[in-house]
Amino acid sequence: MNYEKIPESTRFLIIGLGLMGGSYARALKKQGYTVEAIDKNIDAIEYALDKDIIDVGSTVTTEEAVKRADIIVFALYPHVFLEWLEKYRDFIRKDTLITDVTGVKTVIVHDVQEKLGNKAEFIAAHPMAGREVGGVHNSNEAIFKGANYIVVPTEKNTEHAIEVCCELGEILDFRKISVLSPEEHDTMIAFLSQLTHAIAVALMCTNGDPKLCDYTGDSFRDLTRIANINDVMWSELFLLNKDALLEQTDAFIEQITKMRDMIASGDREGIRDMMKTSTERRKRFNKPTS
Protein backbone atom coordinates (compact mmCIF):
# COMPACT_ATOMS: atom_id res chain seq x y z
CA MET A 1 0.00 0.00 0.00
CA ASN A 2 1.40 3.39 -0.98
CA TYR A 3 -1.07 6.17 -0.31
CA GLU A 4 0.40 9.67 -0.24
CA LYS A 5 -2.31 11.53 1.64
CA ILE A 6 -3.53 8.83 4.03
CA PRO A 7 -0.53 6.90 5.36
CA GLU A 8 -1.00 3.61 7.19
CA SER A 9 -0.36 5.33 10.53
CA THR A 10 -3.58 7.36 10.15
CA ARG A 11 -6.06 6.75 12.96
CA PHE A 12 -9.77 6.83 12.05
CA LEU A 13 -12.70 7.55 14.33
CA ILE A 14 -16.13 6.53 13.06
CA ILE A 15 -19.06 8.13 14.82
CA GLY A 16 -22.19 6.08 14.16
CA LEU A 17 -21.58 2.37 13.72
CA GLY A 18 -24.52 1.34 11.58
CA LEU A 19 -24.49 -0.16 8.11
CA MET A 20 -22.38 2.56 6.52
CA GLY A 21 -20.13 3.25 9.48
CA GLY A 22 -19.56 -0.46 9.94
CA SER A 23 -18.77 -0.94 6.25
CA TYR A 24 -16.23 1.91 6.39
CA ALA A 25 -14.67 0.32 9.48
CA ARG A 26 -14.37 -3.10 7.82
CA ALA A 27 -12.78 -1.65 4.70
CA LEU A 28 -10.30 0.51 6.63
CA LYS A 29 -9.31 -2.28 9.02
CA LYS A 30 -8.59 -4.59 6.09
CA GLN A 31 -6.26 -1.92 4.71
CA GLY A 32 -4.32 -1.92 7.99
CA TYR A 33 -5.65 1.28 9.56
CA THR A 34 -6.45 1.69 13.25
CA VAL A 35 -10.20 2.23 13.60
CA GLU A 36 -12.01 3.50 16.66
CA ALA A 37 -15.79 3.87 16.86
CA ILE A 38 -18.42 5.58 18.97
CA ASP A 39 -22.03 4.44 18.94
CA LYS A 40 -24.74 4.73 21.60
CA ASN A 41 -25.72 1.09 21.00
CA ILE A 42 -23.61 -1.20 23.19
CA ASP A 43 -24.59 -4.23 21.08
CA ALA A 44 -23.11 -2.59 17.98
CA ILE A 45 -19.83 -1.83 19.75
CA GLU A 46 -19.54 -5.30 21.29
CA TYR A 47 -20.31 -6.98 17.96
CA ALA A 48 -17.75 -4.85 16.12
CA LEU A 49 -15.06 -5.58 18.70
CA ASP A 50 -15.85 -9.30 18.72
CA LYS A 51 -15.68 -9.50 14.90
CA ASP A 52 -12.50 -7.39 14.74
CA ILE A 53 -14.29 -4.69 12.73
CA ILE A 54 -12.83 -1.99 15.01
CA ASP A 55 -9.85 -1.75 17.35
CA VAL A 56 -11.46 0.40 20.04
CA GLY A 57 -15.10 1.23 20.73
CA SER A 58 -17.25 3.13 23.18
CA THR A 59 -20.86 4.18 23.75
CA VAL A 60 -19.82 7.59 25.08
CA THR A 61 -17.93 10.44 23.45
CA THR A 62 -14.76 11.34 25.32
CA GLU A 63 -12.25 14.08 24.63
CA GLU A 64 -9.45 11.51 24.55
CA ALA A 65 -11.13 9.44 21.83
CA VAL A 66 -11.85 12.46 19.64
CA LYS A 67 -8.35 13.88 20.04
CA ARG A 68 -6.78 10.54 19.04
CA ALA A 69 -8.39 10.73 15.60
CA ASP A 70 -6.59 11.94 12.49
CA ILE A 71 -9.71 11.51 10.36
CA ILE A 72 -13.25 11.46 11.73
CA VAL A 73 -16.07 9.93 9.67
CA PHE A 74 -19.58 10.94 10.71
CA ALA A 75 -22.16 8.28 9.83
CA LEU A 76 -25.13 9.90 11.57
CA TYR A 77 -28.52 11.29 10.63
CA PRO A 78 -28.06 14.94 9.57
CA HIS A 79 -29.71 16.46 12.65
CA VAL A 80 -27.75 14.15 14.98
CA PHE A 81 -24.51 15.17 13.24
CA LEU A 82 -25.24 18.85 13.96
CA GLU A 83 -26.25 18.09 17.56
CA TRP A 84 -22.99 16.20 18.11
CA LEU A 85 -20.96 19.17 16.89
CA GLU A 86 -22.79 21.51 19.24
CA LYS A 87 -21.78 19.33 22.19
CA TYR A 88 -18.33 18.08 21.33
CA ARG A 89 -16.67 20.27 18.67
CA ASP A 90 -14.16 21.63 21.20
CA PHE A 91 -12.76 18.10 21.54
CA ILE A 92 -11.58 18.05 17.92
CA ARG A 93 -7.92 18.70 17.14
CA LYS A 94 -7.26 21.49 14.67
CA ASP A 95 -5.32 19.18 12.34
CA THR A 96 -8.06 16.53 12.27
CA LEU A 97 -9.90 16.11 8.98
CA ILE A 98 -13.64 15.50 9.16
CA THR A 99 -15.84 13.87 6.55
CA ASP A 100 -19.29 12.28 6.44
CA VAL A 101 -21.67 9.97 4.56
CA THR A 102 -24.75 12.20 4.73
CA GLY A 103 -27.29 11.89 1.89
CA VAL A 104 -28.04 15.62 1.58
CA LYS A 105 -25.49 18.41 1.54
CA THR A 106 -26.72 21.98 0.97
CA VAL A 107 -28.53 22.30 4.30
CA ILE A 108 -25.76 20.49 6.20
CA VAL A 109 -22.33 21.34 4.79
CA HIS A 110 -22.40 25.09 5.36
CA ASP A 111 -23.79 24.66 8.88
CA VAL A 112 -21.07 22.17 9.77
CA GLN A 113 -18.32 24.39 8.40
CA GLU A 114 -19.73 27.38 10.25
CA LYS A 115 -19.93 25.47 13.54
CA LEU A 116 -16.34 24.28 13.16
CA GLY A 117 -14.95 27.67 12.11
CA ASN A 118 -11.17 27.40 12.21
CA LYS A 119 -11.35 24.44 14.58
CA ALA A 120 -10.93 21.76 11.89
CA GLU A 121 -11.68 21.20 8.21
CA PHE A 122 -14.83 19.42 7.08
CA ILE A 123 -14.93 17.93 3.58
CA ALA A 124 -18.27 16.35 2.73
CA ALA A 125 -18.65 13.06 0.87
CA HIS A 126 -21.43 10.72 -0.16
CA PRO A 127 -20.86 7.00 -0.76
CA MET A 128 -23.50 5.97 -3.30
CA ALA A 129 -23.87 2.51 -1.83
CA GLY A 130 -26.09 0.73 0.63
CA ARG A 131 -28.35 -2.19 1.40
CA GLU A 132 -31.99 -2.65 2.39
CA VAL A 133 -30.95 -3.73 5.88
CA GLY A 134 -29.28 -1.67 8.57
CA GLY A 135 -26.87 -2.04 11.45
CA VAL A 136 -23.24 -3.04 11.82
CA HIS A 137 -24.34 -6.70 11.81
CA ASN A 138 -25.22 -6.25 8.13
CA SER A 139 -22.20 -4.13 7.21
CA ASN A 140 -20.00 -5.29 4.36
CA GLU A 141 -17.16 -3.47 2.65
CA ALA A 142 -18.10 -5.22 -0.61
CA ILE A 143 -20.97 -2.73 -1.06
CA PHE A 144 -18.41 -0.13 -2.15
CA LYS A 145 -16.86 -2.17 -4.94
CA GLY A 146 -18.22 -1.00 -8.27
CA ALA A 147 -20.17 1.83 -6.62
CA ASN A 148 -19.81 5.60 -7.01
CA TYR A 149 -18.39 8.07 -4.48
CA ILE A 150 -18.99 11.80 -4.50
CA VAL A 151 -16.78 14.41 -2.86
CA VAL A 152 -18.68 17.64 -2.10
CA PRO A 153 -16.37 20.60 -1.39
CA THR A 154 -17.18 24.26 -0.87
CA GLU A 155 -15.03 27.33 -1.40
CA LYS A 156 -13.83 26.91 2.20
CA ASN A 157 -12.12 23.59 1.50
CA THR A 158 -8.41 23.27 0.80
CA GLU A 159 -7.09 21.34 -2.17
CA HIS A 160 -5.36 18.99 0.26
CA ALA A 161 -8.63 18.06 1.97
CA ILE A 162 -10.30 17.37 -1.38
CA GLU A 163 -7.39 15.14 -2.39
CA VAL A 164 -7.51 13.24 0.91
CA CYS A 165 -11.24 12.69 0.56
CA CYS A 166 -10.81 11.43 -2.99
CA GLU A 167 -8.07 9.09 -1.83
CA LEU A 168 -10.36 7.77 0.88
CA GLY A 169 -12.78 6.80 -1.88
CA GLU A 170 -9.97 4.91 -3.59
CA ILE A 171 -9.01 3.12 -0.37
CA LEU A 172 -12.63 2.06 0.11
CA ASP A 173 -12.54 0.62 -3.44
CA PHE A 174 -15.18 2.77 -5.11
CA ARG A 175 -15.30 2.48 -8.90
CA LYS A 176 -15.88 6.13 -9.80
CA ILE A 177 -15.00 9.22 -7.75
CA SER A 178 -16.66 12.51 -8.68
CA VAL A 179 -16.53 16.05 -7.30
CA LEU A 180 -19.74 18.13 -7.12
CA SER A 181 -20.81 21.30 -5.34
CA PRO A 182 -23.43 20.88 -2.57
CA GLU A 183 -26.10 22.32 -4.88
CA GLU A 184 -25.14 20.04 -7.78
CA HIS A 185 -25.10 17.07 -5.44
CA ASP A 186 -28.57 17.72 -4.06
CA THR A 187 -30.10 18.23 -7.51
CA MET A 188 -28.55 14.96 -8.65
CA ILE A 189 -29.51 13.01 -5.54
CA ALA A 190 -33.10 14.24 -5.72
CA PHE A 191 -33.47 12.46 -9.06
CA LEU A 192 -31.21 9.43 -8.81
CA SER A 193 -31.95 8.43 -5.23
CA GLN A 194 -34.76 10.27 -3.48
CA LEU A 195 -37.25 10.23 -6.37
CA THR A 196 -36.58 6.54 -6.99
CA HIS A 197 -37.30 5.75 -3.34
CA ALA A 198 -40.44 7.89 -3.43
CA ILE A 199 -41.67 6.04 -6.55
CA ALA A 200 -40.98 2.63 -4.98
CA VAL A 201 -42.84 3.59 -1.79
CA ALA A 202 -45.78 5.04 -3.74
CA LEU A 203 -45.99 1.91 -5.90
CA MET A 204 -46.09 -0.35 -2.85
CA CYS A 205 -48.85 1.84 -1.36
CA THR A 206 -50.94 1.63 -4.55
CA ASN A 207 -52.21 -1.92 -4.07
CA GLY A 208 -52.48 -3.70 -0.74
CA ASP A 209 -53.68 -7.10 -1.98
CA PRO A 210 -51.77 -9.57 0.26
CA LYS A 211 -51.86 -12.26 -2.45
CA LEU A 212 -49.83 -10.21 -4.94
CA CYS A 213 -46.61 -11.75 -3.67
CA ASP A 214 -47.89 -15.14 -4.89
CA TYR A 215 -48.07 -13.91 -8.48
CA THR A 216 -45.25 -11.42 -8.94
CA GLY A 217 -42.20 -11.80 -11.13
CA ASP A 218 -38.72 -10.33 -10.91
CA SER A 219 -39.68 -7.05 -12.57
CA PHE A 220 -41.84 -5.98 -9.61
CA ARG A 221 -39.30 -7.22 -7.09
CA ASP A 222 -36.49 -5.32 -8.83
CA LEU A 223 -38.51 -2.12 -9.11
CA THR A 224 -39.60 -2.14 -5.46
CA ARG A 225 -36.43 -3.49 -3.83
CA ILE A 226 -35.75 -0.11 -2.20
CA ALA A 227 -39.32 0.20 -0.88
CA ASN A 228 -38.09 -1.71 2.18
CA ILE A 229 -37.04 1.59 3.69
CA ASN A 230 -35.78 3.25 6.87
CA ASP A 231 -38.65 5.70 7.35
CA VAL A 232 -36.86 7.75 10.01
CA MET A 233 -33.82 8.46 7.86
CA TRP A 234 -35.50 8.82 4.47
CA SER A 235 -38.30 11.11 5.64
CA GLU A 236 -35.63 13.42 7.06
CA LEU A 237 -33.67 13.35 3.81
CA PHE A 238 -36.78 14.02 1.72
CA LEU A 239 -37.70 17.11 3.73
CA LEU A 240 -34.16 18.47 3.96
CA ASN A 241 -33.98 18.37 0.15
CA LYS A 242 -37.62 19.33 -0.38
CA ASP A 243 -37.25 21.90 -3.19
CA ALA A 244 -35.05 19.73 -5.39
CA LEU A 245 -37.14 16.62 -4.74
CA LEU A 246 -40.39 18.43 -5.56
CA GLU A 247 -38.89 19.66 -8.83
CA GLN A 248 -37.90 16.13 -9.84
CA THR A 249 -41.24 14.69 -8.65
CA ASP A 250 -43.13 17.19 -10.81
CA ALA A 251 -40.99 16.21 -13.81
CA PHE A 252 -41.81 12.54 -13.19
CA ILE A 253 -45.53 13.27 -12.84
CA GLU A 254 -45.37 15.04 -16.21
CA GLN A 255 -43.85 11.96 -17.86
CA ILE A 256 -46.12 9.38 -16.20
CA THR A 257 -49.12 11.53 -17.14
CA LYS A 258 -47.85 11.67 -20.71
CA MET A 259 -47.62 7.86 -20.75
CA ARG A 260 -51.08 7.55 -19.19
CA ASP A 261 -52.63 9.84 -21.81
CA MET A 262 -50.96 7.91 -24.65
CA ILE A 263 -52.38 4.66 -23.30
CA ALA A 264 -55.83 6.23 -22.97
CA SER A 265 -55.78 7.55 -26.56
CA GLY A 266 -54.25 4.39 -28.05
CA ASP A 267 -51.11 6.23 -29.20
CA ARG A 268 -48.90 3.20 -29.79
CA GLU A 269 -46.19 5.12 -31.65
CA GLY A 270 -45.93 7.66 -28.82
CA ILE A 271 -45.60 4.86 -26.28
CA ARG A 272 -42.92 3.20 -28.39
CA ASP A 273 -40.99 6.46 -28.70
CA MET A 274 -40.92 6.84 -24.92
CA MET A 275 -39.79 3.23 -24.55
CA LYS A 276 -37.02 3.72 -27.13
CA THR A 277 -35.79 6.80 -25.28
CA SER A 278 -35.91 4.86 -22.01
CA THR A 279 -33.99 1.91 -23.45
CA GLU A 280 -31.30 4.14 -24.94
CA ARG A 281 -30.78 6.15 -21.74
CA ARG A 282 -30.76 3.03 -19.54
CA LYS A 283 -27.73 1.69 -21.42
CA ARG A 284 -25.58 4.42 -19.85
CA PHE A 285 -26.16 2.92 -16.40
CA ASN A 286 -25.04 -0.62 -17.20
CA LYS A 287 -22.03 -1.52 -15.07
CA PRO A 288 -18.96 -2.84 -16.89
CA THR A 289 -18.75 -6.61 -16.88
CA SER A 290 -15.05 -6.71 -16.03
What descriptive keywords fit this protein?
alpha/beta; six-stranded parallel beta sheet; three-stranded mixed beta sheet; 11 helices; 9 strands; 13% strand
Task: Lay out the secondary structure.
Blueprint: E1 11-15, H1 19-30, E2 34-38, H2 42-50, E3 56-58, H3 63-68, E4 71-74, H4 78-88, E5 97-100, H5 106-116, E6 121-122, E7 124-128, E8 148-152, H6 159-171, E9 176-179, H7 182-204, H8 218-223, H9 231-240, H10 242-265, H11 268-282
Helix pairs in contact: 4-5, 7-10
Written description of the protein model:
It is a single chain. By secondary structure, this protein is α/β, with parallel strands linked by helices. Helix content is 48%, strand content 13%. The chain has eleven helices and nine strands. The strands form two sheets. It has a six-stranded parallel β-sheet. Strands 7-8-9 form a three-stranded mixed β-sheet, covered by helices on one side. Helix 4 packs parallel to helix 5 and helix 7 packs across helix 10.
What is the oligomer described by this structure? single chain
In the sheet with the most strands, the strands line up as: 3-2-1-4-5-6
Helical/strand content category: alpha/beta
> Mind summarizing the main beta sheet?
6 strands, parallel
Distance between the termini: 23 Å
Concise overview:
The chain is an alpha/beta fold and 290 residues long. It is built from 11 helices and 9 strands.
